[in-house]
Write a structure and sequence with these properties.
Layout: E1 4-17, E2 21-28, E3 32-38, E4 57-64, E5 70-80, H1 89-104, H2 113-129, H3 135-146, E6 165-169, E7 174-177, H4 188-199, H5 212-230, H6 235-242
Parallel strand pairs: 3-5
Antiparallel strand pairs: 1-2, 1-4, 2-3, 4-5, 6-7
Helix pairs in contact: 1-2, 1-3, 1-6, 2-3, 3-5, 4-5
């Protein structure tokens, strides 16, 4: 018996197949990551094309095909798109990178409500405000938090001291105080920023100001920690950093 589902999600990846088809990766709240085929979607006559573009957030009706791992898209009704990002090279490259990360940190049949909300809120912010170097580290730290990889940023992992926290060990996913670490890579301003990013409501994660020095440290730590956790360097990050 063929399985049909109705769901809402964001297209975070697309791959061309044959002459007119595409395979889409759709991130949904309740079903996690879904692979779905859009037959003939590359044709301008296709009824699916409006709701099946990269970064598009749509209502989908999906029918399970012969391959149980790939659905066929029956219909796609666009709710929101981010087409204008195509005119902003930095914004487009950043969005590609963020969607890559969302792809790496999600799976099928996984509850992804918060990660989907995070990617939508972030891409909407990019569309509204334009490219901002603060967006990348904020997203990285919050994604790691939503994925369960955030360490305790409120006390030393070695002695429990909640004062003079000066070092973030990427390898050990631990924060250390001045008495337990001679190395210092974590200023109070950066620590305050990380605490805000990882604990505030998602809708407010970009609503703070930081100095250039704090932004530099925040960016370096977020990227270093994420890449250590990920175990690879996404091609989309290499491209983003080349701009």
């Amino acid at each position: 018996m063929t399985t049909e589902i109705t769901t809402t999600g964001m297209i975070i990846k697309e791959t061309k197949v044959g002459e007119g088809n595409k395979i889409f990766t759709i991130l949904t709240a309740e079903h996690g990551k879904i692979q779905a085929s859009g037959a003939g979607v590359r044709s301008y006559k296709s009824k699916l094309s409006a709701g099946c573009s990269l970064f598009c957030y749509s209502n989908f009706i999906l029918k399970q095909g012969k391959s149980k791992t790939i659905y066929n898209i029956v219909s796609a009704e666009k709710q929101m798109d981010f087409y204008d990002l195509r005119y902003d090279l930095h914004g487009l490259a950043l969005t590609n990178y963020l969607c890559d990360l969302a792809n790496y940190y999600t799976d099928s049949n996984m509850e992804c409500k918060e990660i989907l909300r995070l990617i939508l809120n972030t891409v909407y912010y990019i569309k509204k405000e334009g490219y901002n170097p603060k967006i990348k580290p904020v997203f990285e730290f919050r994604l790691l938090t939503e994925s369960g990889f955030s360490p305790d940023f409120y006390s030393c992992s070695n002695c429990g001291n909640d004062k003079s926290l000066v070092h973030f060990s990427v390898e050990n996913s631990a924060v250390l105080c001045k008495n337990c670490s001679k190395a210092e890579n974590l200023s109070q301003g950066t620590l305050d920023a990380i605490r805000y990013i990882t604990s505030t409501e998602q809708k407010n994660i970009f609503n703070f100001e930081i100095s250039d020095d704090v932004l530099t440290q925040l960016t370096n730590l977020a990227e270093e920690y994420l890449l250590h956790n990920l175990g690879k360097v996404p091609k989309s990050l290499i491209y983003l950093k080349s701009l």
